[in-house]
């Protein structure tokens, strides 16, 4: 990015100050429209401008198995001047001290089917959208579009999802605020898996406890989605996962249902099949699965790094077997006091994984945790009961 853009992104923007347990802190809004939020009348709450569609979702969610994973909805509040109406929500930041926050928008597209078909009604050539396109990628327009110096809105909408990881990974980073107070929304073209890995690594840098907690919570969310009537009956578009951690805690919540709509009664979706115009698939599970996979990869890499850093102290002078042997010994003997036993065997679902399979040469038990819990027998929900979440961190 240009120097100016960098500067703009470092500048702190604080919509308001929040007070909780007598602590005053600047509230963080990472994405969305400025002016949509203000401090709530009750401690530990925020007000978001009323969007009737979103309120409807929150009302359903308060009775759904997903309730522990969304902010508590506490009804409507009118502004003092009576001009606007807000919904009062649990402030997810209030239990954290100087939190690091990340907003990831989930799904393979961020517009509704109806927005696309509306854009297709009168597809005029748009110069402004052409300009935006070439600002990001000079080669994105076709020869014809270059000649016309314009692109249509539906063409622009579909293209825009391909510059980030939205269309390929089913999620994109919207914004990150780190513990030093700096924040960035400069992720519009963060697309490759490597770029995302690096961003996640940086986000959790210095907070080694956060990564395994995030992975566990994401897996709990994935397991719960399977049982959710809300999830079964809705097309979840433009919704985010909000990641929050500080030195002691870490958690994830589903937020932003302003564009989430009930599916037509005759339509059922899998949330993990490819979207084609008209099939209503949102790719929500594609995003969740990739998030779990990428977080696990970053965590595994860090675990291996920590282990190898400790090896010199454990190696015998005549040991010529190298790293693999040392790693195996570490895993078997549990000599390691920094890495708790729980973080070792559960970090990943991939069986080619040295760490994960250290005690398991047959690889027969290298399954993601939630598969073990939920299993194939969906009529049995005992697994889910063990997994019941909470909406506190
Ligand atoms: N309940 C909440 N607690 C804490 N922060 C929140 C909460 N809801 C939203 N935010 C913050 O506000 C930002 C925008 O919220 P969102 O609901 O996505 O608004 P919009 O509909 O304008 O996109 C999020 O990225 C997050 O930083
Ligand atoms: Mg949003």
Automatic annotation (TrEMBL):
<dbReference type="GO" id="GO:0032958">
    <property type="term" value="P:inositol phosphate biosynthetic process"/>
</dbReference>
<dbReference type="InterPro" id="IPR005522">
    <property type="entry name" value="IPK"/>
</dbReference>
<dbReference type="GO" id="GO:0005634">
    <property type="term" value="C:nucleus"/>
</dbReference>
<keyword id="KW-0808">Transferase</keyword>
<dbReference type="InterPro" id="IPR038286">
    <property type="entry name" value="IPK_sf"/>
</dbReference>
<comment type="similarity">
    <text>Belongs to the inositol phosphokinase (IPK) family.</text>
</comment>
<protein>
    <recommendedName>
        <fullName>Kinase</fullName>
        <ecNumber>2.7.-.-</ecNumber>
    </recommendedName>
</protein>
<dbReference type="GO" id="GO:0005737">
    <property type="term" value="C:cytoplasm"/>
</dbReference>
<dbReference type="GO" id="GO:0046854">
    <property type="term" value="P:phosphatidylinositol phosphate biosynthetic process"/>
</dbReference>
<dbReference type="GO" id="GO:0000828">
    <property type="term" value="F:inositol hexakisphosphate kinase activity"/>
</dbReference>
<keyword id="KW-0067">ATP-binding</keyword>
<keyword id="KW-0547">Nucleotide-binding</keyword>
<dbReference type="GO" id="GO:0005524">
    <property type="term" value="F:ATP binding"/>
</dbReference>
<dbReference type="Pfam" id="PF03770">
    <property type="entry name" value="IPK"/>
</dbReference>
<keyword id="KW-0418">Kinase</keyword>
<feature type="region of interest" description="Disordered">
    <location>
        <begin position="373"/>
        <end position="393"/>
    </location>
</feature>
């Amino acid at each position: 990015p240009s120097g100016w853009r960098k500067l703009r992104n470092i500048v702190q923007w604080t919509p308001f100050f929040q007070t909780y347990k007598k602590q005053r802190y600047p509230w963080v809004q990472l994405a969305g429209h400025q002016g949509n939020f203000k401090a709530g009348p009750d401690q530990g709450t925020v007000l978001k401008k009323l969007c009737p569609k979103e309120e409807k979702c929150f009302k359903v969610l308060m009775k759904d198995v997903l309730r522990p994973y969304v902010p508590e909805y506490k009804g409507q509040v009118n502004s003092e001047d009576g001009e606007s109406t807000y919904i009062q929500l649990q402030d997810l930041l209030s239990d954290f001290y100087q939190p690091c926050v990340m907003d990831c928008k989930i799904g393979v597209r961020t517009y509704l089917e109806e927005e696309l078909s509306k854009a297709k009604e009168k597809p005029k050539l748009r110069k402004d959208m052409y300009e935006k396109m070439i600002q990001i990628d000079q080669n994105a327009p076709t020869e014809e579009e270059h000649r016309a110096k314009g692109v249509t809105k539906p063409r622009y909408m579909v293209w825009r999802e391909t510059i980030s990881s939205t269309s390929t990974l089913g999620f994109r980073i919207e914004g990150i605020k780190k513990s030093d107070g700096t924040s960035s929304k400069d992720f519009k073209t963060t697309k490759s898996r490597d770029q995302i890995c690096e961003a996640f690594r940086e986000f959790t840098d210095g907070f080694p406890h956060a990564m395994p907690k995030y992975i566990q919570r994401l897996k709990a969310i994935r397991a719960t989605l399977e049982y959710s009537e809300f999830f079964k009956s809705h097309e979840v578009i433009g919704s985010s996962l909000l990641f929050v951690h500080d030195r002691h805690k870490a958690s994830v919540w589903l937020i932003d249902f302003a564009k989430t709509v009930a599916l037509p009664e005759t339509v059922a979706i899998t949330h993990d099949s490819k979207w084609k115009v008209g099939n209503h698939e949102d790719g929500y599970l594609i995003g969740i699965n990739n998030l779990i996979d990428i977080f696990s990869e970053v965590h595994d890499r860090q675990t291996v790094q920590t282990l190898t850093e400790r090896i010199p102290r454990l190696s015998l002078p005549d040991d010529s077997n190298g790293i693999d042997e040392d790693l195996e010994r570490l895993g078997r003997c549990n000599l390691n006091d920094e890495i708790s036993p729980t973080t070792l065997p559960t970090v990943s679902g991939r069986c080619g994984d040295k760490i994960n399979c250290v005690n398991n040469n047959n690889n027969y038990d290298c399954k993601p945790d939630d598969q073990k819990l939920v299993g194939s027998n969906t009529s049995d929900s005992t697994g889910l009961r063990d997994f019941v979440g909470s909406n506190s961190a």
